[in-house]
Amino acid sequence: MTLLSNLLHKRTQPLQLFKLLQTQHPNPLSFLQIRTATKRAGGSTKNNRSSAGRRLGVKIFGGQYVNQGEIIIRQRGQRFHPGENVCISKDHSLHAQRSGYVKFYEDPRGDSIGYRALSLRHQAQRKFVGVVQDRDQTLPRDLKSEGRARHFGLVDLNSHFKQIELDSANNFKISKSDLILKQTV
């Protein structure tokens, strides 16, 4: 600093100034400093980030109780297909249409509604999700022998009518229509 102040206060010729600098410093250009950028160039900090997970998967497992309207499975695409008492929403989530117990099954016969045409093409068995009223019921139902599951006021009418027919066979014959008329009156 003192050298620089001496040079500025003295009135010297440029050649004398150069000689004076050369005696003090071997390289006179080292006195001249040029600042350059010190910040490193980096990429964008927003790159290589993914979105948060969508929380997909099975929400209620087989054998667990589900209320009407609850989500059973959230999925992308149809990995699981709706079975008995289950509906599918526009984002392929499966919802319970009625309260009951969740059952996972594969339909070996392809007799489920909307599945027969696909089973004729020898595709792999689809995984279905169904909801049944009783925990001990199994899916798929044998539609020829058992018929469709019919419920009225959360009562399985098929099993109810079978029980009535067994009771009435012992006592006297009563038709289903007579029974319904008696219950409504």
Automatic annotation (TrEMBL):
Keyword Glycoprotein: no
UniProt entry keywords in alphabetical sequence: Ribonucleoprotein, Ribosomal protein
Biological process terms in GO annotation: translation
InterPro entries: Ribosomal_bL27, Ribosomal_bL27_CS
GO MF annotations, alphabetized: structural constituent of ribosome
NCBIfam families named in the record: L27
PANTHER family in UniProt: LARGE RIBOSOMAL SUBUNIT PROTEIN BL27M, RIBOSOMAL PROTEIN L27
Similarity comment: family membership: Belongs to the bacterial ribosomal protein bL27 family.
Listed name of the protein: Large ribosomal subunit protein bL27m
